[in-house]
Amino acid sequence: MPCKRCLARGQTWNGDKPKCAFDGNFAENWNCATLNELRDIVYEGQSPMPPGVDYQYCEDRKYATVKIDDVELANGNSIGLALWVSWYKSRGTTDAAWILAGDEPPRIPSEKELDAIIWHFAKHAT
N or C: which end of the chain has fewer CB within 10 A? Predict the structure, then answer.
């Protein structure tokens, strides 16, 4: 099932339908509203960049490492240490998103985890 942001937004453009990252295959996402909102937080050109966000640009590839050790889910559980996200140019696909958590293997974030991260950065925006 699509994420709540994709359901609320729907399709607001002509062309291909969105493919929500949370609708079965994260890797085949295109114009997922949750991932778009996350990319807005970490994207270049902000002055200043939000605290805890390290954005990089390398040969049309963009990636960011986001400090999330102070972000918690509603139940109080910690999400992890960092979120790493990567995409190509300003296209609609987010190539990768990984939660890094200590000695655990990297893992794809859940919709709830990204909701908490997005909320955290919106709450702390200056």
Answer: C
